[in-house]
Write a structure and sequence with these properties.
Layout (H helix, E strand, L loop, with lengths): L7 E11 L2 E7 L11 E4 L2 E9 L2 E6 L1 H6 L10 E6 L18 E11 L2 E7 L13 E4 L2 E4 L2 E2 L3 E6 L1 H6 L10 E6 L1 H18 L10
Antiparallel strand pairs: 1-2, 1-6, 2-5, 3-4, 3-6, 4-5, 7-8, 7-13, 8-12, 9-10, 9-13, 11-12
């Protein structure tokens, strides 16, 4: 579990092909504190630390991760958002982020508004039920608030601090980003779906309901 509050910007040192698995090596000061098997969100994707060496963390990308996220686009020199899994004894900010990407979105526009930026991102229509105005969304692992919403796109306002401490300055029209919708919203939408299906079947209650 993560919060969507980025701890550090890492730099991709290299990408190694190992059969059907791709290993990404990321330079980061966090490497010294990481343990093998630990979870780290890389651009919003929960990855397992497979090795640490020389100020780098290594993680393996399987075929499914390469298919459903933007991590397959990473190459040497790319900047990535990093967040270690949240601790049970720490303060909680942001929102509940699992590191499980729901879809890849496409940046439509980046525009300046004073010292802040507006970023508009298109999303696949099947995700529409999971977005609400003033609700939460993780974009490349960054916890953000939906400020505007249409049927197939949302807009977020990025304050100067977030702009300076994440990889968002690299975004351009056409950039692909990992999207994870608010977990609470997904459970609500699923509950409504199951309830409606139950009504159609003549009952929405399980056999052991009291």
């Amino acid at each position: 579990m993560f919060t969507g509050l980025i701890e550090h910007l890492g730099r991709v040192a290299g990408v190694d092909e190992r059969g059907s698995v791709r290993r990404v090596r990321i330079e980061t000061p966090l490497a010294a504190d990481l343990t093998l098997g630990e979870s780290v969100a890389v651009n919003g994707v929960c990855l397992t630390v497979t090795d640490t060496a020389g100020g780098e963390m290594h993680a393996d990308l399987g075929p499914e991760t390469l298919r459903v996220t933007t991590l397959g686009d990473l190459g040497p020199g790319a900047t990535v958002n990093l967040e270690r899994a949240m601790r049970a004894d720490s303060r909680f900010g942001g929102h509940f982020v699992q590191g499980h990407v729901d879809a890849v979105g496409t940046v439509g526009e980046v525009r300046t508004d004073g010292d802040s930026r507006w970023v508009t991102i298109g999303f696949p229509r099947p995700l529409a039920a999971y977005f609400v105005r003033k609700g939460s969304v993780a974009v490349d692992g960054i916890s953000l608030t939906v400020a505007d919403l249409t049927d197939d796109a949302f807009a977020v306002m990025i304050i100067p601090f977030t702009w300076a401490h994440t990889n968002m300055p690299a975004l351009r029209a056409g950039s692909r980003v990992n999207l994870e919708c608010d977990m609470v919203g997904k459970y609500v939408a699923r509950a409504v779906e199951v309830f409606r299906a139950g009504e159609g079947a003549g009952s929405s209650r399980p056999d052991n309901a009291t």
